[in-house]
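Hello,

Our lab assistant flagged a job as stuck in the queue for most of the afternoon. It eventually completed. Since we weren't sure the result was trustworthy after the delay, we are filing this so someone can double-check. Below is the sequence as submitted and the structure that was eventually returned. Let us know if re-running is recommended.
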Amino acid sequence: MKVRRVYVKDSRFLSILADFDSAPDFLWVRGNLPEGERPKTVAIVGSRKNTSYGEAVAYKLAFDLASCGVIIVSGMAYGIDAAAHRGCLDAGGVTLAVLGTPIDQIYPQRNVRLAEKILEKGAIVSEYGKGSWTANWNFVRRNRIVSGLADAVVIVEATLRSGSLTTATWALEQGKELFAVPGDITRPMSVGCNKVIKQGAHVFTETEDVLGVLWPKKAKQLKFEVFGEDEFEVEILQAMKEGATDGDEIIEKTGLDAKDFNRTVTMLEIKGVIRSLGANAWSLA
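-- returned structure --
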């Protein structure tokens, strides 16, 4: 796919970088940058030596955000970055990869197929043109672009010396909303995230945490769509969405027996999804 040079000031999507002193004047681009009104964008980054838990969190977050029309930015590295790109792609979304290598050198090589999938709808960008020399510090330096292109940054897993923490530092300097996934205090992969949380980052435990800070309307929409966790909950909540509040009426609409109904509404109350009105009546919380 053709490589082109795009000046930051000439692209509505890239122009957000122009606000930062450290931003490049232009980026080398392959693929398609978003056009028209700038969409909301979230960067998801983390360790290359991730746990299965971290991979699942990154994938689900990217999938959920992409389902809401959010563009996902990451660095196409092993681990968390790759999981975020895959989650976005599987949701049919648009994702951008920021390379620490020249625009014509996909690294790591095992992500070549992932790069091809990204280019179908999104883009790969780098500040290094064809034939440029690659140094280790390029990967750290590119993190300012990852955070710079995003409205919010989520750190999923990071050791105390992780390069992802440089992304967190850039995010704070650039005035971005910063989130981190809390973790087991005995695991090295949680140390970096727990540290930035103590320093003031938002705690991330569910997709609504991000949507609730940046896009409250989308947060409400997402919650309404997914808060039924099994078929009984879905049936009861659907009946309540349609206006049923009385317990007998809900049972009649759903066809549930009294035992399943009582167990399910108790769990929904504990979760804070519904609240009791007394006299065998409930409402959505």
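-- support follow-up --
The delay was a queue issue, not a problem with the job. The result is valid. The domain at 3-218 is CATH 3.40.50.450 (Rossmann fold). The chain is about 40% helix and 15% strand.
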